Structures
1.
Amino acid sequence: MTSTASPAVVRPVQPVRTDWKLTPLSALRILRAEVRKGLLSQLAHPMGHIIMLVISTVLYLGMQYVMGQGTLRRELIPQTLVAISGYWFLHYGSLVMVADLVEEKRGGTYAQSQMSPAPPWVFMLGRLVTASLAGLAVAVVATLVPMLVTGVTIPLNAAALVPYALVVVNVLAFTFVLAAVAVSSPMVGALHSLFTSLVILLNGSMMPLALYPDWLAVVARFLPTTLGVEATTKVLFDGKSLGDIWSEGTLPWLLAYTLALVLFGGWLFSRNHRRAVRDGRLGQY
Amino acid sequence: MSTQTQAPAGSGRPEAVTTTPAIEISGLTKTYGGADTPSVDNVSLSVPAGTVFGFLGPNGAGKTTTIKILSGLLAASSGKTLLNGYDVTRQRAAAMQQFGAVLEGSRNVYWTLSAWQNLLYFGRLKGMTAAHAAARAEELLKGLDLWERREESVGGYSRGMQQKVAVAAALIADPPIVLLDEPTIGLDVEATRTVMEWIRTLSRERGKTVLLTTHQMNVVEELCDRVAVIRKGKVIADMSTDQLLSQFRERDAYEVRIEGDLPELSLPPNFTARRVDDTTIVSGRVSDPQEVYTLVDRLRDQRAVVQSLAQVQPDLEDVFMGLIKGPAHD
């Protein structure tokens, strides 16, 4: 039977807010909120991270023990540690980024976050910062613990920070590429596994790139982190300057590769986001 | 952009009068890639500010597609959607500040975070300052009876409480428009009642415009000032709830109760008889009420004891079913 709503007492609506403008400060505020939310979400389940910290150290030492046929070859550890730090930064950072994104798309919170006046890339950058912090934590532990266990140190050289910074940008750009894939496909997990497996095999984490067959070393340089690790180890262990690695082509290739990866990541995200909005897959797969 | 609303003089359910409709959709069409027919086909709607607007239709009719387009989550193939006069596509930042939304089949909020953390996060996302978001979050959580449990993670809440947090997150920036896609689905009676009270309060006391989709016709009848029915992507009815019901009253059904068995007589077309305990109920639809009085006279002639004669009013569910089963309005 019919029951009708009581007569409405319609009051004037609130003043309409239209004041949000994209400025560095407004973007930074939203980015900070995104990072804070991301960290709180990560810390809500610390056990996964703790297990990964343990795995990261055990895996490296075990791998070196096997490669050394039952001994830890101390002369190879500093170089491979540089590579493994890059690997863990890449592996765990991108894992956190991609897993969160897929979960949020399935859960619906990704769609909610898109109903903001801020453009979508601001949120992606926030997610990238959170994921990078998780990756960085694992990379630091995965590097420091083997150093403590073996007593091996990595010599400090400020010049090496330049190519290593490019390793970091490499990793961030590659993570962004995977995130862009995750915007449109939940199968990104397979892609993540494929690439990170290739990286640990070929970026110098098992043995320095110089020990690989030439053709394999060429292939390896197309993977993220390899060129950066090669340039960093040349500065740290071969006594080369930035000028040396520039003139021999390592640094220019690294710069070009990094730039290409950054541009590709930005383009892919823009394309996949646009397609997701067109096809109605922004809040679901 | 200014919007003014007022209740017109007169009795009954008032229509909000406004200079700018809170929601304006014109010629909206969405065809998904690979589909032959559009999911939303040339839909035009105008929702006055301050009203609760029921957007009804069977599954797959195009309701959620329309809400997603309004929310900026889906691009239309053609047409225009304005929120408080702001074009969702061309003036996205301003349009996004006009509404909050609770989407169907979606968590809407982070279950790993507390209600408090969720509201602060969504407040910042809408461009609020931390202090403003905190003050508003406190107001909302107290109003929804969640203040005491604000620090607990939402994942541990009951379904009803989770939905309350989702509603609060949609309201955190105090938007003038609220889009609610099946807000009471899966809720128990008490939680449904709470959400309905909130929707009523939002509209009647806060002047918000609420666009609501639901399959629960009692919710629509109780809350909605205006209703649009969509079927196969096309709007087949768009009028006030009272108008919709009265339109269907023109085809009213009648019910005659008589004591004992039905005497030997032929019933008018569209009439049936059924026995309930000691009573026989003769019911059916007529185009002219005189037909019913003729039937009553004939029954009395046969010495039947007529207990009652009543007009059966259709409820919104009858109307809805009649509309969606009717011929397509192509």
2.
Amino acid sequence: MIKPKTLFVGAIALLLFGFFLAVLIQTAERESQSSGKATHPEALVRMHAPALGRPDAQVTIVEFIDPACGTCAALYPAVKEILAQHPDQLRLVLRYAPFHPGVDQVIALVEAARRQDRLWPALEVLLATQERWTPNHRPDVEQARRVLAGIGLDMVRLAADAADPAIAALIAQDAADARLLGVEKTPEFFVNGRPLPSFGLKQLQMLVAEELARR
Amino acid sequence: MRTKMNTLTDNPPSAAWLLLFLAWLVAATATLSALFLGEIVGLPICSMCWYQRIVMFPLAIILPIGLFPDLDRRLIRAGLALAVPGLLLALYHQGIVSGIVPERIQPCRQGVPCSETVVSWFGFVTIPLLSIVAFTTLVVLLGAALYRSRS
């Protein structure tokens, strides 16, 4: 008869082995899936999508961003830094992922600011003051408006533009593309159409370096 | 040989010990599976699932205390104190999924609704069903262990 202690230790070893095997299989499966993620190149970059950098840049980073998402705000400076390191070779294309309920109205304000040529300042000030207008993950449009008033926008025009159905259609298109591309969390990056193998700033930096090395 | 401190660790396990061991095996498997589905696969976790986790996870940790160095009945009782509410929660959850429990008293309205079926293996194996199976097995095993270990 097997000893109880041996039985117990053996069972633990077996359980952990099974668990890590399942983790390995799942991770491998996810990686093979993520390589098939960008099977809709037309959905990746749309004509309406705002972009930073030269249109003929060697490497295009597509970022699906939710202005109310804390990780998006935290990573944004790092993304800008990557861009600043290779200003001539990199381009950032911005796509909206309106995952927080109600954030679409805030995105509409950003798009309205775009019509006053202030899209990036508007987005950046919103990301920097995120806690003020999205307490407890609930976007508050009025607070966002107050933040935007501080960067010298024509607020009357902003309100009128934000209500334009064309802007709502643009946001809806981005949301539909996010769904099509399997974007479920933000921020999600595609570097020359390639998704990150797993989420992280390092992975983004490495993918950018890989694409830059491809001459 | 420590013949006086004759602990179970040195002898073939009794039936009650094996029952408790099996119960721990079920709890540990359920715990690892729940962690796997939530953390690795990334399935959304509704609040009913959290309540069932609250009673399942401790079982995987405390039951071994009742196995070593000797079979300890108090841990079997503690296990039942967790497993029985767990079974009730699992049954209630299944009730929500199958629509037996009216929507009016559905506990989770925000986030992931508990009535949503995120996984269905072979067409009928859902996570709430697995939870019922696990908690039922636990109650039966622990009940039997308590019965067999009575002095």
